[in-house]
User: Fold this.
Amino acid sequence: MQVSAFVAVSLDGYFAPGDGNDWLHPSAGADYGFSRFLETVDAIVVGRRTYERLRGYRHWPYSDRPTMVLSSRPVNVPVDLVRHVESTRLSPDQLLARLWLDGRRHVFVDGGRAIQSFLTSNRLSHLTITRLPWILGQGLPLFAPGVGEHALEHVSSTAFSDGLVQSRYRLPGADMSAAPNA
Assistant:
């Protein structure tokens, strides 16, 4: 099983300002490989705050894939999303075991706290970080204290003409034992 994060951060490592508002404004029409990446994904795990932000979009971006919302409180899922969105309190270990049994082989983890929980649990196997040439100075850090130490293997980096730099990493120490032959 592959468990991936695909995230954009400021040059100083923040994925959102302190107020949690969306601050990313990429070039019109550019998705920096995200659509191609998403085509390989068959399940999505998001944190509650990310889910709430995504619900504000005109169209649900992951309509054809099961999406699990990590939350300790009940999540309001509108009728039009009930087929695809489910709230869960499962740990990363429990959730990956369930998704494996459901036939899922590539899970996309989205949202700062969700990414941190999978990293802390040593269950994140791939990480794509796109750094924007922007310094926020403060906010919500992608790598908060407590995520532990992780050795990453650099796979590739791409510099885009608008100043963004995207790097892909593998986490060779990730424990993917929830899934046989992972």
